[in-house]
Amino acid sequence: MKRYPSKISYGLLLFVLAVIIGTTIPIISQGNLLGLGINLFTLIFVLYVFFSIYYVIEGNNLVIRVGVLFKWKIEISTIKIVAKSNSWISSPAASLDRLNIIYNKHSSILVSPKDKEGFIKELIRINPQIEEL
User: Fold this and answer.
1) Model confidence at 111, in pLDDT bands (50, 70, 90)?
2) Regarding predicted confidence, which is higher, 54 or 90?
3) How far is C-alpha 69 from the chain's CA centre?
4) CA distance linking residue 67 with residue 51, whole number of Å
């Protein structure tokens, strides 16, 4: 079993935090405690998500985790292509320096392992049919 934490883009995190903090300032000035509570919950949730994303290669499976919230399991034998991507599409990736994993017939998922090269090598070791783009 090999675990690969997600690369974290601190620029992306800073942008998200700026939006949350920017909306919190008027809420505080209005004395809106409910709005403040919602923003604090959102802040904690965003930080949890950013720092809890990781990818595990267990046998012939790639398991993608976002803490205890989300879990995807992909059979490595179904992976066709691993391609570099900078897509902004929502995904279990805390960075825009991503890999697009195409598997089955028309399925794909974006990931951002900190050790991209080691991650790709391990996938290809298990399934030599994977095309790297």
Assistant:
1) very high
2) 54
3) 12
4) 8
Can you tell me the distance from the alpha carbon of 36 to that of 62, in angstroms, rounded to the nearest whole number? 39
User: How far is 115 from 123, CA to CA, in rounded Å?
Assistant: 12
Chain centroid offset of residue 74 CA: 15
How many domains, the chain? 1
Closest CA to 55 of 123, 105, 128, 106: 123
- C-beta of residue 50 within 8 angstroms of C-beta of residue 67: no
Domain span at 2: 1-133
What CATH number does residue 128 fall under?
Answer: 2.30.29.30
Q: CA-to-CA distance for 40 and 21, rounded, in angstroms?
A: 9
What SS3 class is residue 61? strand
pTM, two decimals, is 0.83
Q: How many CA atoms lie within 13 A of 27 on its CB side?
A: 15
Residue that the structure tokens 């720092």 belong to:
51
Which tokens is 98 given?
């991503």
Note the pLDDT tens digit of each residue in 35-71: 899 999 998 998 998 899 999 999 999 999 998 889 9
- Give the residue carrying structure tokens 């809890």: 52
